[in-house]
Amino acid sequence: MGCGDGDGADLDGDGITDLEDPCQASEADGAGDLDGDGLPNATDPCPLDAAPHLGDADDDGIPETCDPFPVTTGPDTARCITAFADPEITDGYLIPREGETGWELGPPLSITGAGSIVSSFPATTVRSTTYEVLGNVQFARADDTASFRLWLRAAPVPGEDDLACGIDGAGNLVIYHGVERIAPRPLAGGTSGRPFRLRATVQSSGTNTILCRLTAGSDSVATTAAIALPDGTFGFAAAGGSFQIQALAIYDRPDAPPF
Known about the structure:
It contains 2 helices and 14 strands. The chain has helices at residues 28-31, 87-93; strands spanning 78-82, 94-96, 109-112, 115-119, 128-139, 147-154, 163-168, 172-177, 180-186, 195-203, 209-216, 219-226, 233-239, 241-253.
């Protein structure tokens, strides 16, 4: 997902070149029903939420149930969703980082142990991008050496500027910047053995801001930090457990609404 490579390639075969395609996901993703509400992903206004799809205060076509910015007026939010339905397509845009182990490409994406993958497409250049992941984790250790990370900016070669929202084995939501752990916040009950939703928003507007929110069951916690955004793209990393990702949604806005 994101910007394509500019050489006329069409990863998902939908007739839109990767350079122009806002979503290089498989068409098979549209036929699935991730939230089990009877509506196919392609026509479901909230494909990750089975709750009633009520309200659209900002009139962007995404109900308040699942809109990252539900009451912010302004330019429309664009959404791309993938359930990794076609491993061959997934293999085209999620690649192992140098010297690190890749993930099983599913569906779902999965790994036991440690590994890291990033998108082969550069990060979008819009002012606000939200990444939302549905997944499951079973940590092998109840400490901060075990983790799942949603890369917000990561290069193909690991480096000190890598930036992520993540979860550690002790049940904390953490912003990771290289080896630094920023603004950890505990989630009641932790995430190990529970389905979770991790949402991360990156805003480029004056002071770059990162907002991370973690939800498991009825428990939710958020943390935020102002960090200069390095070059890189999105992806996933894991260490110390068994991990699965069922779906990823990406929301782009050309403005940077307040949190």
